[in-house]
Amino acid sequence: MYQRHPSQPTGDPLDLNVVPKVGIIGVGTIAEALTMGLCAFDDQRAEILLSPRNDTLSRRLALRYPNVKVAADNQAVVDESEIVVLAVRPQVTEEVLGALRFRPDQQIVSLIATFSVQRLSSLVAPANEISRAIPLPPVAERQGPLALYTQSAEILRLFDGLGSLIRVEDETHLDLISAVTSLMGTYFGMMGTVDDWLIERGFKPEASRAYVGELFFNLASAARNRSEESFTRLSADYSTLGGLNEHAWRELQAAGWADHLQAALDLILDRIHGHATFDTQLPGAANPRVDQGKR
Ligand SMILES: NC(=O)c1ccc[n+]([C@@H]2O[C@H](COP(=O)([O-])OP(=O)(O)OC[C@H]3O[C@@H](n4cnc5c(N)ncnc54)[C@H](OP(=O)(O)O)[C@@H]3O)[C@@H](O)[C@H]2O)c1
Predict the structure, then answer these.
(1) What is the number of the ligand 1 atom nearest to the C-alpha of 113?
(2) What is the pLDDT confidence band of residue 285, given thresholds at 50, 70 and 90?
(3) What pLDDT was estimated at residue 6?
């Protein structure tokens, strides 16, 4: 339990009620999940001040948690916070941060995958203690992997226990993790493809989803429980020699499935590094385009 703000005045070392003031700019999917994680189990490890966008989400969080409030605007979030969490989309980051005045004593935690510490430093100057984190939606229940790149003991304490904390020493490894987290949509996309196949052949949707969910849940559990073993080993253990699993995987590999997956990861890493955009496609791909506004 995080009770004491380490930078509190040393004249009052026994006051356990002082907690850091954490401001969050950009209250969307991940900021909501992070706020819920920070406040889970009635933990009040921080006073949280949210930007008024998104209005619905920030108001809902403030109504739910006594230690969460909504600021009048983004500058008020910065002015009243010791730790500022950046959770806006990359597309608006420069515009949003460019309009704000930071202080040298503030700590910054960026959740924005495509902005390196170096790129952020001119945008948040004179603040110069910049950490990066990759929480994922299950952080709301203090579950899932939470990657953190920081030199700050205070930030480490703030995020401690919000999931399986993976602290990276090298910022480039955080970019690799960011690329890998881009496969969440693909994971559910694969389940959806299997689901469609079952439904087209007569399964009721509820029965299909229940089966597919249970199957993938158990496979994911096996991967986590046997993390000392390679995935090749797990694949072999779950595949009868000459059986259906070996057959399906052999054909998918022969069709380039594994290579495509790694090529997609390379492309996402390029995008994280600013060398590709949402419009960049894999060579030879005829991707179905998704209208961003309709998602
Ligand atoms: N989703 C994830 O799993 C995840 C995981 C790790 C990191 N991230 C990173 O976290 C960031 C946010 O992702 P997200 O999925 O939470 O996106 P999101 O749901 O679109 O949230 C972004 C929020 O920023 C708000 N916003 C837009 N302009 C603003 C402004 N000028 N001032 C303050 N707030 C503003 C939006 O408000 P409106 O709704 O009013 O437009 C929206 O609520 C991204 O950089 C992403 O790379 C996301």
Answers:
(1) 47
(2) confident
(3) 38
Between CA 8 and CA 5 the distance in angstroms is 6
Specify whether the CB–CB gap between 222 and 229 falls below 8 A: no
| Protein residue whose Cα sits closest to atom 24 of ligand 1 | 26
Q: What percent of the chain has pLDDT over 70?
A: 91
Average pLDDT, stretch 79-93? 97
Ligand 1 centroid to Cα of residue 225, in Å, is 33
Cα 27 to ligand 1 centroid, rounded to whole Å: 6
Q: Is the CB of 28 under 6 A from ligand 1?
A: yes
Write down the residue that tokens 């790694």 correspond to.
262
Burial call 140-178: b when 16+ CB within 10 Å, e when fewer: bebebbbbbbbebebbeebbebbbeeeebeeeeebbeeb
**Both tokens of residue 157?**
């304490």
Task: Read off the pLDDT of residues 15-58 as tens digits, 9 standing for 90 and up.
Answer: 456 899 999 999 999 999 999 999 999 999 999 999 999 999 99
**Sequential DSSP letters for 39-84:** HGGG---SEEEE-SSSHHHHHHHHHH-TTEEE-SSHHHHHHT-SEE
SS3 111: coil
For ligand 1, mutation pick of 27, 30, 59, 94 (most atoms within 8 Å of CB): 30
From the CB of 185, is ligand 1 less than 6 Å away?
no
Nearest CA to ligand 1 atom 15: 29
Q: The tokens of 12 are what?
A: 């009052």
